[in-house]
User: Fold this.
Amino acid sequence: MTNSELKNLLDSLSLEDKIGQLVQLTGECFAGGEIQTGPAEELGIPEDMVQRTGSILNVTGAEKLKGVQKRYLEQNPSGIPMLFMADVINGFKTVFPIPLGQGCSFDPGLVEEAAAVSARESSAAGLHVTFSPMVDLVRDARWGRVMESTGEDVCLNGVMGAAMVRGYQGKSLSEPGTIAACVKHFAAYGAPEAGREYNMVDLSEKRLREEYLQPYHAAAAEAGAALVMTSFNTVNGVPATGNRWLLDEILRKEWNYKGVVISDYSAIAELIVHGVVADGREASRLALECGVDIDMVTDMYAGHLQDMVESGVISEELLDASVMRVLELKNELGLFENPYRFADESKEKELGHCQAHRETARKLAEESCVLLENDGILPLKKEGQKIALIGPAADSAEICGSWSLFWNSADVTTLRTGMEEKTQLSACVKGCDLLDAEPVYIGFRGQELRGRKDQSDLIAEAVEAAKKADVVVMTLGESPQQSGEGAARAFLDLPECQKKLFDAVYEVNSRIAVLVFSGRPLDLRYIVNRAAALMLVWQPGTEGGAALANLLFGDAVPSGKLSMSVPYCVGQVPVYYARYNTGRPAKKGTRNRFLSAYQDIPNEPLYPFGYGKSYTEFSYGKPVADRGEVGTGETVTVVSEVQNTGMTAGTEVVQCYVQDLVSSTSRPVRELKAFARVFLRPGEKKQVAFTLDEKDFSFLRADKTWGPERGRFRVFVGGDSNAEQETEIYYCG
Ligand code: GLC
Assistant:
């Protein structure tokens, strides 16, 4: 449709039809929806409004959605097709590592391809929109949804969020195999106080603008995500879903964002609970005035807008602006020309978890794993080595993370299967449950999650297996249900049953390579000094077993680098590398009461952002800048020579950090500005170049303006956020 045709359509709509376009319900109102992702409340929305609903969420399947659309159009007065949305977070039928793992790949090209795979599979299954990428900065491992983000860093999250948007949306949403991206959760949902789910967020405007808002800008304003989702939390006292500064000043006016804004699940009604409005009428009015176009699964818009427009409390122009944005999105998706878009049962079957997609998933899973320790036990031998596989994830299909909703467990290559493709295992035993009997966790569907009280039989079996083996591969970590939404944890330790398993096995066989399956960084101190190897594998997805087997036996070489710092212990969080120096910075290795330090633990995380080992070693020369001074509109290129000094070919993620030495406000001790994956054969050297310009030196200055300031900058290039090789440049703009 042309814009004028859209405008004519808008003008032809009744008030009820217009309001219907702004209502989103769960699929169960239409098709016995498969997924209930939020509070299932009886909405009490009148039947005639249900029939006008503009979109539904979390129903999938080409045949099912074609049927829904057909029935809907037959009985919908406006004849405007419905939008179908879902949480395709880390894959559809082919499931990729959780996004926190994908961030560790530092491979935006592969992450973009993975998003494109998800778009191909889900669009064939009839979906139009995915509620992804989630680009919230995450620095507190107590929060359950760190698994859904690509990590703690401004640069990395922006690059990865934009890559996912490109992958989902392709060059145009009229192209087959694309879906609209929805960036979330706007804003700063990843910084809830105390790491407690849905808790308040209080950040200075400086931190919001310099850090937390940047990735949303990259994904929405730069990469062009078609939708933005508002977050549950308050930002400096005002719930994001009713926050004029965020939604109107920043998003619409400063960023000139023209896309659709959708609330998170029931968030408009929650404005009442937050205490910023007295009732549903005020909640609806505030949200609409802030530019929230779609009300996700409440009766706020459905129950209050008509009366407020008819009584003049809300102007119809305001309503029309939101309705027009929804119509424009439907138009961009081509729904007026073809309400069934790319829904295609045979394509859905052909594409779902097909070989090509599995290859992408395996490769991304290999690149997402982070090798933290290795005394040489890895890579394992395929012959002449008795290998016992022990652990609760050893032969489990539950390795796809809590936000993978549409996969088939039969499609999962378990670790056991992957390893048995390579060699004959001497044993494969569970060793223990994932959880202790207490505390009892609550699963996504409200079910109790707990281990057995007495797991000694499993441990005894593991000890026997370990005795007969040369080496043990042991899986430890979390249940996928222990992370994701509503999964905040106050402790990050491994459960007692897993500690007992490790101790008992270590007693008879100290050659243990530990794989940690988790949705968050855990407190690994209990095993770190005894494990012969330690690899963080997150929740690796449907090809996880194949990827891990390749890494364990050296058919792939670890290249993953931490997207989020691994804390020394929970008392240290939030912990992140881009910290402030303070006026009394602690000096590693010195004890002085009056420095910014803890009395009982180190300041440094157990493993820093950007850290990860390989099966080879890399060395860095001193970086060299092509100019000592850089002015307005100019760039400076810093070149660092990287060499593979080991015996195995491998890929290094070369990272470039910048420190602003003197400025009108304090600045982080360093910030990642660029990175590159570099493949090197043994002995090979490569000159790796990074080009910086004034946007890399810019920040929110003391006078609240944005831009660089004259002065000295240190530029570090290395293999993690503690990179030591540095050079200095002067910005003279
Ligand atoms: C959930 C999540 C959001 C998700 C939405 C729809 O509550 O906060 O990330 O996209 O509801 O399922």
Summary: The first helix runs from residue 3 to 12. Confidence is low (pLDDT under 50) at residues 33-41.
